Amino acid sequence: MLPRFWRKIKHRYNLIATKCENCGTYYYPPRNLCPKCRRKSRIVEVKLSGKGEVLSYSVVHEAPENMKDQKPYVVAMIKLDEGPVITSQLVCDCKEVRRGMRVKAAFRRCGEEGDAGIIYYCTKFVPE
Amino acid sequence: MRRVAVIGVGQSKFGELWDASFRDIVLSAGIEAIEDAGLEGREIEALYVGNMSGGRFLSQEHIAALIADYAGLAELHIPCTRVEGADASGGLALRQAYLAVASGLHDIVIAAGAEKVTDIVDKAMEILASGVDREWEVFNGATLASLFAMMARLHMDMYGTRAEDLAMVSVKNHRNAVKNPKAQFRREISIDVALNSPYVAEPLRMFDCAPISDGAAAVILASEEVARKYTDTPVFISASSQATDYIALSSRKDFTRMDAVVFAAREAYRKAGIGARDIDVAEVHDSFTIAEIMAYEDLGFAEKGKGAELIREGVTEIDGDLPVNTSGGLKACGHAAGATGIRQAVEITLQLRGDAGERQVDAERGLALNIGGTGATAVVTIFSR
Ligand SMILES: [Zn+2]
Question: Which of A8, A60, A65 is facing B201, going by the closest CB pair?
Fold first, then answer.
């Protein structure tokens, strides 16, 4: 997982999205091709505000091995103010999360990889 | 395009088959199908096999050649191809076999599906989750269950679907599995047990989630003309449709609907010249109970948002107007990833032939829905007597 992760590190750490200047749509995860405009796509990189609201969420009780030390944790679909929806961990009390809740991006420890226990970081969300 | 019929079906037991190897379970399904069709074996002109992740579950790729070898087909040198679309792999293999016969390329083709998951039991669910976006969903903390849980949460909030409705799907499918000798969980559960089982990903609990199972299934397809030579009870494939959607749930417009299912179903009904109301029995992809409720809506069995009414009113019970998952579904018959789509075709064929034993329903037309991941791939197949 690590190589793939590092490749997009600029986008992950800084919430860099792409925007199609032809139709004005923001994409995060970033896309190099606008599905609406295809060959007419004019893709540029833009930094997102990192603010948005919870569309849906779940409290995860059965977690994969590398996330086990964090359970139960909240995962949410967050609609960012610029439009794109992202799936992300939401760092908050499991009982506090609600649909429509305002949240903002924060830099957090994400997990550990392999026996060497390399700690990696990523963008998560917290209540605004 | 020619009419295509199912002339033989076979299925291994689904479940934790500790004693059986991948080769063993595939062979048992294949032999059963060949015997059921009354074939000798060398009439088979091609093989398609659905397998989700031999590479990760078994460290074995080249699955089609392996299966052909152990099925005794190696010396025939027929083309054998593996097809992959996460847990829709079986449905895709069925469709490829259908196309090969319908096009006139081959007269008799075998479509198989197989998965052996219990060799690395602790990683099985994580491998199943490779059917969603690893980089932008799983990496960010989502599990397969939590993605379906987020669909469930919205469906509940927007349409009044209740935890009890989800539990009733599980109770129904367990009850049906009691009557299926090939099923993994052949025991009834009460709604209280389902509602009090531990959370996997809220609001989904243990009994909302299908297991991941070992299993294999096979069907033999033939052109109509050839089929008539082998059987008096051919079951025809009236339509086979496939559709695709964004792989990540977050990229889709509506999280309470699977557009790939809606599109594949619409196309299938059009090709078959029928409507949703003409379906008498269905096998749908209940990897999570909410997926069965959404399937009722996306397949047109219920209006949008009213899927739960079908389970509340008993419509989809085995003695209801539209029995769904008479096999026990993925929840109770078991979910052997790449085998599931073929296993569904086996069940519908048995039902339409009148060979479903204790779980027999009265049906002329059946439908199977097989999806991959959270619905980025959907295959809808319509069968008729
Ligand atoms: Zn565009």
Answer: A60
Structure tokens at B226: 């050839």
Domain B4-122+213-235 is of which CATH architecture?
3-Layer(aba) Sandwich (3.40)
B156: enclosing H helix or E strand: helix B144-159
Residue B225 burial (C-beta neighbours within 10 Å; 0-12, 13-18, 19+): exposed
ipTM higher than 0.85?
yes
Count other Cβ atoms within 10 Å, centred on residue B257: 18
Could you give the residue range(s) of every CATH 3.40.47.10 domain in chain B?
4-122+213-235, 130-207+237-384
Between the CA of A34 and the centroid of ligand 1 the distance, in Å, is 5
Chain B residue numbers with beta carbons less than 8 Å from the beta carbon of A99 are 153-154, 157
Query: What total number of domains does chain A contain?
Result: 1
Assigned CATH class of B130-207+237-384: alpha beta
Most B-contacting residue of A9, A34, A59, A61 (CB-CB within 10 A), to test interface: A61
The one-letter amino acid code at B217 reads A
Range of the domain at A82: 2-127
B186 vs B14: CA distance, rounded Å: 11
Distance from residue A19's CA to the centre of ligand 1 (Å):
8
Structure-block tokens of residue A95: 């009982």
Q: A88 forms bridges with which residues in the sheet?
A: A76
Q: Is the N-terminal amide bond of B79 cis, ω within 30° of 0?
A: no
Per the CB < 8 A criterion, the answer to whether A78 and A53 are in contact is yes
* 8 Å CB contact of A75 and B250: no
Give pLDDT tens digits along chain B (385 positions). 999 999 999 999 999 999 999 999 999 999 999 999 999 999 999 999 999 999 999 999 999 999 999 988 899 999 999 999 999 999 999 999 999 999 999 999 999 999 999 888 678 888 999 999 998 999 899 999 999 999 999 999 999 999 999 999 999 999 999 999 999 999 999 999 999 999 999 999 999 999 999 999 999 999 999 999 999 999 999 999 999 999 999 999 999 999 999 999 999 999 999 999 999 999 999 999 999 999 999 999 999 999 999 999 999 999 999 999 999 999 999 999 999 999 999 999 999 999 999 999 999 999 999 999 999 999 999 999 9
- Please indicate whether, in this complex, the C-beta atoms of B149 and A5 are within 8 angstroms of each other: no
Q: What is the C-alpha to C-alpha distance for residues B94 and B111, in angstroms, rounded to an integer?
A: 5
